[in-house]
Design brief:
The chain is of the alpha/beta class. Helices cover 32% and strands 22% of the residues. The two termini are 13 Å apart.
Amino acid sequence: MKIVPSILSENYDDFVLRLRQAEPLTDYVQIDIMDGVFVGTKSFPAEMIGGVETGLSFEVHLMVEAPGQIVAKIRNRGLRKVIYHFESKVDHDGILTELRGLGLDAGLAVRPETAVQECLGVAGRVGTLLFLTVDPGKYGSPFRSEVLAKIAEARRIFPEKTIAVDGGVSLDNLHLFYGIGVDYVCVGSRIFIDGKPEDNFRKFLIRLKEIEERQA
């Protein structure tokens, strides 16, 4: 299992600051894009990602009502994967075809209230399933433990698929995700919020190593 820093920023300057803070820590991050409609918070404009030079590879998590309108605006050589929400207003065939044409991996995000059975048809066509374990749109939302059973169900149905978790991940519950076969967890506020991202990220890596050794 891997720890992926998640960057959620309402303004561009804050986004760049957190991106620079992440660069010494890792080679891969998640960037959240929000439209103020699908979730109550609005991020900096997606097209501004194209103006940032970074050595990091990254995925974007589109918490937006119309992801098909956003994909074409994101241009950066570091972009590897686009994750959009099953619950958004989207032509699944169209966006998946577009992502393949751009050479990008596709992921499907699922809100806590959406059952796995509802999205099986689309889930089978993407490489990554991202399960939200909080109500999306802001740092620090409460962890919803009922999603764990849904993640375990998805792992049984899709044994070869990449499964990720976003939201509410802490040092105290990290073992829960490891135990049900999650491939990577996205951590935002618990890395960036107190201005000590290097220390916080290291704590997660130490905790993960402890879990791996205990379950080896």
